[in-house]
Amino acid sequence: MRLLHTSDWHLGRAFHRVNLLDAQAEFIGHLVTTVRERDVDAVVVSGDVYDRAVPPLTAVELFDDALHRLADLGVPTVMISGNHDSARRLGVGAGLLDRAGVHLRTDPAGCGTPVVLADAHGDVAFYGLPYLEPALVKDAFGVDRVGHEPVLAAAMDRVRADLAARAPGTRSVVLAHAFVTGGEASDSERDITVGGVAAVPAGVFDGVDYVALGHLHGCQTLSPRVRYSGSPLAYSFSEADHRKSMWLVDLGADGSVAAERVDCPVPRPLARIRGTLEDLLADPALVRHETAWVEATLTDQVRPADPMARLTGRFPHALSLVFAPERTPDAPDVSYAGRLAGRADQQIAQDFVAHVRGAGPDEREQAVLREAFDAVRADDALREVAR
């Protein structure tokens, strides 16, 4: 069986101030063409179909168009909701859409109930694990603590139990939206840290033939059977070096996996350039970036006048301007923002406590901080569900 694995469409998202709807529509057309021309047997979409819980009407219309075009091909599609989606909204009409071959899996209770498709070699069971917000599903899954690993492990126990009851030789595919250990993040994924831990080990998914992951925006291979497709478009300058693609996966009669990357259309390349303003305006080596979306980091000691206006004179698609003055050896080497970059909320809070009172929090106080952050995230998740 030949699968096309994609995820993280983020329909409705902009890139800085640039509307990406046309680029997203071009990607949908490319996906449909790939399905038709490469004899794809099933499409899997591993979450974050939309960029937010209440997407703009134009994004809903594009999604509707995608569903119709995939259904017209007669090729089954299995989709799950991600942490950006409203599971309830995305799942509306799921029962009716099943009849058209579009299988939306947004209810955590259905983790152990697969979509079963067949080829010449027998059945393939597709298990959809939508994004599982630990605080919201902990009780339903019967786990003792809030965390991504225990709830995903409980969901996979249901998958393995169902698979064990099926005919020998039944192959299996799991769709999941999670941060799996070994994956490389970018700046455009929403933080899903719980209890100070965001990642789950890949071993949670043992026992199935292929795991189609979503959430991280870079295309990545964690093992031959566990892969991220990544987002089809870049949504931050941290993705400037990404090669945006989908996975074309051949699932053999014995459950073996062979995968090929299928590149996605690039609306405009990204470039990150750094130097003084005068150097950036004069450097002949930067000619190749004059048609790119540009993030410029200026290292001038004194902020120059009208820097963005001058930059766009040479780089008309410059979108982001960062100031990082070069410092003398005896000056602080990073800004406050730089000191916070890449640090977890928990660590920032602990450092703040240490700064204010001269000593960091003890283990009990760290636990209180952790519980407070988890409560805020759970409250945010509940508000997303209610919206």
From TrEMBL:
<dbReference type="InterPro" id="IPR004843">
    <property type="entry name" value="Calcineurin-like_PHP"/>
</dbReference>
<keyword id="KW-0378">Hydrolase</keyword>
<feature type="domain" description="Calcineurin-like phosphoesterase">
    <location>
        <begin position="1"/>
        <end position="218"/>
    </location>
</feature>
<keyword id="KW-0233">DNA recombination</keyword>
<dbReference type="InterPro" id="IPR050535">
    <property type="entry name" value="DNA_Repair-Maintenance_Comp"/>
</dbReference>
<keyword id="KW-0540">Nuclease</keyword>
<protein>
    <recommendedName>
        <fullName>Nuclease SbcCD subunit D</fullName>
    </recommendedName>
</protein>
<dbReference type="GO" id="GO:0006260">
    <property type="term" value="P:DNA replication"/>
</dbReference>
<dbReference type="InterPro" id="IPR041796">
    <property type="entry name" value="Mre11_N"/>
</dbReference>
<dbReference type="InterPro" id="IPR029052">
    <property type="entry name" value="Metallo-depent_PP-like"/>
</dbReference>
<dbReference type="Pfam" id="PF12320">
    <property type="entry name" value="SbcD_C"/>
</dbReference>
<dbReference type="GO" id="GO:0008408">
    <property type="term" value="F:3'-5' exonuclease activity"/>
</dbReference>
<comment type="subunit">
    <text>Heterodimer of SbcC and SbcD.</text>
</comment>
<comment type="similarity">
    <text>Belongs to the SbcD family.</text>
</comment>
<keyword id="KW-0235">DNA replication</keyword>
<dbReference type="Pfam" id="PF00149">
    <property type="entry name" value="Metallophos"/>
</dbReference>
<dbReference type="InterPro" id="IPR004593">
    <property type="entry name" value="SbcD"/>
</dbReference>
<dbReference type="GO" id="GO:0006310">
    <property type="term" value="P:DNA recombination"/>
</dbReference>
<dbReference type="InterPro" id="IPR026843">
    <property type="entry name" value="SbcD_C"/>
</dbReference>
<keyword id="KW-0255">Endonuclease</keyword>
<comment type="function">
    <text>SbcCD cleaves DNA hairpin structures. These structures can inhibit DNA replication and are intermediates in certain DNA recombination reactions. The complex acts as a 3'-&gt;5' double strand exonuclease that can open hairpins. It also has a 5' single-strand endonuclease activity.</text>
</comment>
<dbReference type="GO" id="GO:0004519">
    <property type="term" value="F:endonuclease activity"/>
</dbReference>
<feature type="domain" description="Nuclease SbcCD subunit D C-terminal">
    <location>
        <begin position="267"/>
        <end position="355"/>
    </location>
</feature>
<keyword id="KW-0269">Exonuclease</keyword>
